[in-house]
Amino acid sequence: MKIISGSLKGRTIKGFDIDGTRPTMDRVKESLFGTIQGYIPDGTVLDLFSGSGNLGFEAISNNAKYCYFNDLNKKCTSLIDKYVKEFDISDKCKVLNMHYNKALNYFIEENIKFDVIFLDPPYKMEILNEIIDKIHENNLLNNKGIIVCEIDTLYLNIDYYEKIKEKKYGNKYIIIYKNK
User: Which of 42, 50, 130, 168 is deepest in the core (most CB within 10 A)?
Assistant: First the structure.
């Protein structure tokens, strides 16, 4: 995988072969970032199920002010830490190795709010409704911020955010919600 645009364009990211990861393919990432590019500059980003860090690194490359990477898999967070050092961006991000619920509680306790939240949990978990409810109930999404969801089936039932895009890419959907 490569970072496709911005200041880190062309840098290679490995980690697509780590058990349990499912990186967003470059073609899908290019389309996604074309859609959300206006939300990223100077924004605070959360990549809650970061895997290889592919989406978070792309956001930093496109002028995100700060990115929080989180993954429960220690292999993933170790790899992200390696790239943070290699890309010399430690001042622009923090890497957490926590269960997603513990990470959300951390952000609530620290009063950290986001402009862009990437949610790409393991498909079989079907937990996005629960996570988005918690984000909404605890006001973790800034005014006019967005949530980007990657799922394999359309099971989301969200009415307090505006759906601004839904597109199918092969066997997955990308759905983007915006804070009203």
Answer: 50
128 closest CA partner among 139, 140, 120: 120
pLDDT of residue 19: 63
Q: For position 3, what pLDDT does the model report? A: 93
CB of 38 within 8 A of CB of 63?
no
pLDDT at 154: 78
> Does residue 1 lie within any of the structural domains?
no
CA atoms within 13 A on the CB side of 49: 20
Partners of 66 in the β-ladder:
44
Tokens standing for residue 4? 């496709």
Q: Which of 29, 81, 20 shows the shortest CA–CA distance to 51?
A: 20
Domain span at residue 140? 26-179
In a domain, 11, yes or no: no
Cα–Cα distance for residue pair 67/55, rounded to 1 Å: 10
- Total structural domains in the chain? 1
The tokens for 80 are 């992200």
CA dist 109 and 144 (Å) reads 22
Residue 165 sits at the vertex; the CA angle it makes with 54 and 172, to the nearest 5 degrees, is 55
The pLDDT of residue 153:
83
